[in-house]
Amino acid sequence: MNGIKIKGTGRCVPEKTVTNDDLARIVDTSDQWITTRTGIRRRHHCTTETHANLCAGAAKAALARAGVAPEQVGACIVATVSADTAVPSAACLLQRELGLPEDIPCFDLNAACTGFLYALHTMECLLNASPRKFGLVVGAEVLSRLINWEDRGTCILFGDGAGAAVVECREGWPSIGAVLGSRGDDELLRLPGLEAGERSFIQMDGTKVFKFAVETVPRCMDQVLQKAGMTAEDVDFFVFHQANARIIDLAVRKYRIPTEKYYKNIQEYGNTSAASIPLVLSELEEQGKVGPGSRVLAVGFGGGLTWGGALIEFV
Q1: pLDDT per residue over 34-74, tens digit each?
Q2: CA 274, CA 78: separation in Å to the nearest integer?
Q3: C-alpha 31, offset from chain centre
Q4: Residues 128, 130, 135, 138: is their CA dihedral positive or negative?
Q5: Which of 107, 117, 92, 78 is nearest to 312 (CA)?
Q6: Catalytic residue numbers?
Q7: Of 60, 80, 256, 262, which is least surrounded by CB within 10 A?
């Protein structure tokens, strides 16, 4: 199978910023309590913006940076758990907004915080069967609508935002070598859907999710490196799902990753679920930390339970 590489990225976040001090006026918490346990200082929440607005903003920026026209796109996937509507999908609304071709697949994908990596692997498969060799992958969330503002354990964590990547598929390019997994669990991290009598708030057992993450991230990294026949030294940059700074720090120490080869933006955005990894990728590209030829190992984990990793190159 021919592989894909990232040709351009983009992002879009709401204008409103919510600080830890803002949350301390709502629930029994403090800036110090939140920062020391999570690394989060701020997060962005939608006011007038919609999920569709965020998707469009990130996608347009990615297309512009990639130099790819909408008519060249062969598929569009939006990874999300919080679209404005179940039907039409966020991807279909994006097709209309951008003027993407009508003879291409456009759909939403739900793998929680691992959604962007699931979507990249799915896109690689789709483009191998498409006459158009560019794909649009978006991770977008408006989690502020799904927060129980009386639950200190969850309301401090989540933010809104979107990140996008335009990928290209070419013959002879290596696969991203995605390693994906899932284990059905409706207790550790849950977002109710249509069950009668339940309100759609995020529910999470933070202690157990933390334990799941610190076990899963290193294992996933090992599997990706083994599949690629590489070591950590062969990777130019490491991108982690921004759920908790302590989880990232543990992985960094285990693999002895130097400071210049990893990045944290959780202090600014909080946990944006499927938008987390593409937000990091967009900032890295904009800052010149990654570019053509860069090899990035990305790892995510989330509700479902799901997890995944991939070795992504830029072109």
Answers
A1: 999 999 999 999 999 999 999 999 999 999 999 999 999 99
A2: 9
A3: 25
A4: negative
A5: 117
A6: 113, 241, 271
A7: 256
